[in-house]
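Researcher: Following up on the earlier apo prediction. This time include the ligand. It's S-adenosylmethionine, with the SMILES given after the sequence.
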Amino acid sequence: MSYSIVAMGTSWGGLAALTKLLAGLPADFRLPVVLVQHRGKDSEGLLGELLQDATPLQVCEAEDKVSLTPGVVYVAPANYHVLIEQGYLSLSIEEPVRFSRPSIDVMFASAADTYLSATIGVVLTGANEDGSRGLAQIAARGGKALVQDPKTAEIPIMPSAAIKAVPSAEVLPLERLAPRLLELSQEPTSARVRRAV
Amino acid sequence: MAVPIAAGPGTGGDLDGQSFKPDLERIEIELLLEGIFRHYGFDFRSYAYASIRRRLWKRIEEEGLSSVSALQEKVLHEPEMMEKLLLDLSINVTAMFRDPGFYQTFREHVVPLLRTYPFIRIWHAGCSTGEEVYSMAILLREEGLYERARIYATDINEVVLQRAKAGIFPLERMQEYTENYIRAGGKRSFSEYYTAKYGGALFDQSLTKNVVFSQHNLVTDRSFSEFNVILCRNVLIYFDKTLQSKVHGLFYDSLAMFGVLVLGSKETLRFMAHEDCYQQIAPPEKIFRKVR
Ligand SMILES: C[S@@+](CC[C@H](N)C(=O)[O-])C[C@H]1O[C@@H](n2cnc3c(N)ncnc32)[C@H](O)[C@@H]1O
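Model: Understood. Below is the ligand-bound prediction.
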């Protein structure tokens, strides 16, 4: 089995980091990317538009029950949690988790529980600890944990917390993340199977 | 059970990667939901899976249990456990004038249509604790339409309906609601609509003069009238696609020709059999007009 999905989370400093990272992915990237970026509860689709200008991938705001398509970046809408189901997304307005809605932990955990070891979790710059529990869940289910090197992060709190929660995570400088994601997305089936054994 | 430190609340499952068997867990969850339906009559079988699973695990962890099957034994034999679980499964989060842009657009594009009717029937499906209903009542009053409107506000959950009837909302949220109200195009001072009482904000009781609160289950109950407007926001997101489609059939049958259907701001009619029966008014708001 190869990787099926990329789950990505960030808060403070996220826009600049995402712009760089997503610019580095090719138009034919073969995995769907689900993205939670903390922001004001009334900010409309602006984030999606800014990211769209930066990347050859298609960027859209996640709507309820939208199907997951390879090479599309789904941005969690403000004020909703995003849950990953087999092949599509569901939204929820239940209470914020650790003060966040959307919550990175909630999205990551649902990715881990649905896609198991076929999940890649990525934690970028941020000023709180959201994402660390979810990333641990991804690692525990056999998925891949990637974290932006806190030294290259605008605010190191979020990536540092993620590394603490998942000591086995691969820690990479921002500019190395896109190439690494591309590599992982192309990883041949056999290599993954061998490693899982 | 060793509490998995890494798992967020409700993320569920044994964190030892090797022993998590998602297919088996799915069987357990389907059996539990089937059992709840047959024994208690609550039908959660077609609710969105990831969300149901998350809520179930929240209860499992709080009870110190370690599997869905263990929860099933308790739920089926102890009605008190079913009651607890019902509260877990029902997500009643709501707010006054949530998505102010929607109310603004409703004023601009739907109110003119409603003015042409001598009498207006509105259905709030899944109204939770009623904040949305009071918001609509305020809007209709300010537009001079309240007196000819009748609002049916329904929910599956009796507890929230009682709270909706009482019309007392947390004082600490009034600042947020006031901001929403202004951005929603409110025409007066929001504080005119409530008084601080009983430790909360008690809303003007005349706002519910034309409101009927009643229990209605979208999954199992039928259409009960014909409406000019149906609002069902942030309810269908908890259903799977098949159930969404079935409930859209119910809405279609309950809506007068040229009536208006309102969904939550991140919901869509795409892929639904009834998509072609509606025209979206003023996108991106999810306001649809029944045209065939
Ligand atoms: C998240 S609240 C939405 C409240 C409000 N419409 C809003 O958007 O703010 C969802 C509501 O749907 C209700 N609900 C869930 N399943 C239902 C069903 N089968 N029939 C009727 N209401 C249901 C829940 O009890 C809950 O109050």
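Model: Chain A has seven helices and nine strands.
Researcher: Noted. I'll compare it with the apo version next.
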